[in-house]
């Protein structure tokens, strides 16, 4: 009997403990298990905001967009009329607010609220990033023209979130002249000012907008620098023999594109069998060539290259004159053999003459060293005057040398 009483008593205590626990669970207030994270999403994508609640019990969870002051959902029901919002529950503690095809107006703070007394809530932020977009209505048009040495400003406006950064580059990779003194490869700013622009700055400029949200976008602006034609003639005097072909050329620069042609004897030169006319163009530069075939007497004279556009015209002049046809040179073998023979003959003659010249002064010296000359008429010995003897010796020596030179010339002539 006592055993039964003890068993019933312990069982009753167990039931009381279970009921107490159940009551504690049922009476425990709801609380948030974790904060709502801040979510970043690109424009047009989908996003979800989680709200984790413990011990919810019979209480309800609601989502509110604070910036709009709009109730979106209560428990499992969607209150807003915006079909892009929905809610889901994973049968545990997490309540998810879904936003499909996010728009910029969806950016802001979202509140997860539990209807306890007093109410509990927490807030999360939905960040909507927008890739850059260039505003054509507020930017410079795609093609602009300006006269050389004038000023021009290129403007490029873009929106997006975060605010885009604007950069300028030249499409051909050439540097950009800033304030006519500084050259940079990349220029930052929504306005690019080009001072006293020159023809070398003509071309395509790229406006690039970026804000770390892909994709970056760009706009291409063509800048045309207009100027009247200029001509440069490499060779103003050109000589060629009759019967040959000759080519004359001119270099021109002009924008807008110029009309270029050749004139001879006040008549425009057209492509024929006699004339070949070609023009090679590169941007605002052109290379004009005129080929005259089988030159005759009437082809020599003054040729003019002329270039015209809407801003003016200019011309260059080239004088074509006749030169004689170059003669053919003798064969190398014949020249070599003749030269060898001639050189041998000249060496032999020069050696013989040299011996003669070296021997004759000794004879002259021997005659001068003899005893004083005796006068046959008066049988009187007279000593020779020193100056007279010296002069006689010099005079004879030059006579002999002159004779040797004459002999050498005559021998060279006959050989």
Descriptive report:
Its main location: membrane. By secondary structure, this protein is of the alpha+beta class. The protein is built from 3 helices and 30 strands. The strands form 7 sheets. Strands 11, 14, 17, 19, 20, 22, 25 and 26 form an 8-stranded mixed beta sheet that branches. Strands 2, 4, 5, 6, 9, 10 and 13 form a 7-stranded mixed beta sheet that branches. It has a 5-stranded mixed beta sheet with strand order 21-28-27-23-24, with no helix packed on it. Strand 23 (259-264) and strand 24 form a beta hairpin. The longest helix is centred in the last third of the chain and has 37 residues, at 332-368. The relative contact order is 0.07.
Biggest beta sheet attributes: 8 strands, mixed
User: What coarse outline follows from CA principal-axis ratios?
Assistant: rod-shaped
The overall average pLDDT, rounded, is 81
Number of strands: 30
Describe the oligomeric state of these chains in a short phrase: single chain
Number of helical stretches of at least 4 residues: 3
Residues in helix, %: 10-25%
C-alpha end-to-end distance: 172 Å
Strand proportion = 35-45%
Q: Which blocks of ≥5 consecutive residues have pLDDT under 50?
A: 332-415
**Structural class by secondary-structure content:** alpha+beta
User: What is the gyration radius calculated from CA atoms?
Assistant: 56 Å
């Amino acid at each position: 009997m006592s055993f039964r009483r003890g068993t019933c008593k312990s069982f009753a205590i167990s039931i009381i403990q279970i009921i107490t626990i159940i009551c504690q669970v049922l009476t425990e207030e709801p609380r948030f298990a974790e904060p709502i994270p801040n979510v970043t999403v690109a424009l047009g994508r989908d996003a979800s905001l989680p709200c984790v609640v413990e011990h919810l019990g019979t209480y309800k969870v609601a989502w509110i967009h604070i910036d709009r002051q709009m109730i979106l959902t209560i428990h499992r029901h969607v209150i807003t009329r915006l079909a892009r919002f929905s809610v889901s529950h994973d049968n545990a503690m997490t309540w998810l607010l879904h936003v499909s095809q996010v728009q910029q107006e969806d950016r802001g703070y979202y509140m997860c609220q539990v209807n306890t007394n007093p109410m509990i809530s927490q807030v999360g932020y939905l960040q909507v990033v927008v890739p850059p977009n260039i505003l054509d209505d507020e930017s410079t048009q795609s093609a602009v023209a300006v006269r050389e040495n004038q000023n021009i400003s290129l403007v490029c406006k873009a929106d997006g979130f975060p605010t885009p950064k604007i950069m300028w580059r030249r499409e051909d990779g050439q540097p950009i002249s800033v304030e006519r003194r500084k050259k940079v490869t990349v220029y930052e700013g929504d306005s690019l000012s080009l001072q006293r622009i020159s023809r070398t700055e003509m071309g395509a400029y790229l406006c690039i907008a970026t804000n770390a949200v892909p994709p970056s976008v760009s706009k291409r602006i063509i800048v045309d620098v207009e100027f009247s034609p200029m001509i440069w003639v490499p060779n103003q005097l050109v000589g060629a023999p009759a019967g040959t072909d000759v080519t004359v050329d001119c270099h021109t620069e002009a924008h807008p594109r110029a009309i270029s042609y050749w004139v001879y004897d006040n008549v425009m030169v057209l492509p024929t069998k006699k004339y070949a006319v070609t023009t090679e163009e590169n941007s605002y530069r052109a290379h004009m060539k005129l080929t005259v075939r089988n030159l005759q007497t009437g082809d020599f004279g003054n040729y003019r290259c002329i270039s015209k556009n809407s801003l003016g015209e200019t011309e260059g002049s080239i004088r074509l004159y006749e030169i004689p046809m170059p003669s053919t040179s003798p064969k190398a073998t014949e020249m070599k053999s003749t030269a060898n023979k001639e050189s041998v003959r000249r060496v032999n003659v020069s050696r013989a003459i040299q011996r003669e010249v070296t021997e004759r002064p000794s004879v002259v010296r021997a005659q001068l060293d003899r005893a004083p000359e005796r006068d046959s008429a008066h049988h009187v010995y007279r000593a020779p005057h020193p100056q007279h003897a010296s002069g006689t010796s010099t005079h004879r020596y030059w006579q002999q040398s002159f004779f040797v030179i004459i002999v050498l010339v005559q021998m060279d002539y006959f050989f």
